[in-house]
Design a protein that fits this description.
about 160 residues; alpha/beta; CBS-domain; three-stranded mixed β-sheet; 7 helices; about 30% helix; globular
Length: about 160
């Protein structure tokens, strides 16, 4: 006899391994990216955008004098530009905007999370603070990675959706 049943509209197909409930508390360390791509607060926005593009990331950690002091996202940069820029039609205003420094758009009130925190904790913090990434710290407060809302979604999907 098959355990298969039709899904109710809007229901997510749950992997049989997790049909009894959510997975055991997955930690942030299991989902985070271990490479922290950094940039100087004095770098130009065009340099930040190029760095994000070349590394395939959406966030850069701002490092000054060996310490992490902030974070900048592709959205922080995009908010300084018009939609025409995304189509490759930069105006003089956008060209001037891209000459601004990272320190002019970065967020310096960095919210961090320990690698031992659960994915649930990270998701709640991201929603509560209306941010999209959390630098991850170890027991001694050293930065060891970064977890993004995309990482959390990817982890959730891996837990609940059946393997293809």
């Amino acid at each position: 006899m098959s355990a298969h049943r039709d899904l109710v509209p809007g229901e997510i197909p749950v992997s049989p391994a997790y049909a009894g409930g959510p997975p055991a508390h997955v930690t942030v360390a299991a989902l985070m990216s271990r490479s922290l791509i950094t940039i100087s607060p004095d770098a130009h926005l065009w340099q930040a955008r190029a760095t994000m593009s070349s590394h395939g990331v959406h966030h850069l950690v701002v490092r000054d004098r060996g310490k992490i002091v902030g974070i900048v996202s592709d959205r922080d940069i995009a908010h300084r530009l018009s939609p025409a820029t995304a189509r490759g039609v930069a105006t003089r205003h956008e060209e001037e905007a891209m000459q601004r420094r990272v320190l002019q758009v970065a967020h310096f009130d960095v919210v961090t999370i320990p690698g031992t925190a659960t994915v649930e904790d990270a998701a709640a913090l991201i929603l509560e603070r209306n941010i999209s990434a959390l630098p991850v710290v170890d027991e001694s407060g050293e930065y060891v990675g970064i977890v993004t809302s995309r990482d959390l979604l990817r982890g959730l999907l891996a837990c609940v959706l059946p393997a293809a």
